[in-house]
Sequence to fold (113 residues):
Amino acid sequence: MEQFAAVALAHFLALLIPGVDFFLIARTAMTSGWRNATGACLGIAAANGIFIAAAFSGISIISHPTVLVVIQLAGGAFLVFIGIAFMRSTPRLSHEGLMQGEVTIGVSRCECR
Fold:
């Protein structure tokens, strides 16, 4: 149990460092409100708890080579799908909104002429 507490504490401290989770929660809070952001926080915390519990319980299903390859291929296919969707998406920037001084998420500085 001491080992679990030490890893849980280290994991909690690592969560304090801004990362992908932080930006997901910040964006969700700004665009959808604090209630949806709370749901995102709970989902992230639940997933982290599941991963910690799985690591400590010794679940080693992915050590089987076939399962590991299937998981890697599925993850790679998902990343390719997300990449293609990103490349095909159209930007949603408005030059009029930027000239009027509106703040747009993801744009830190723009010189419009």
Remarks:
- The first helix runs from residue 2 to 15.
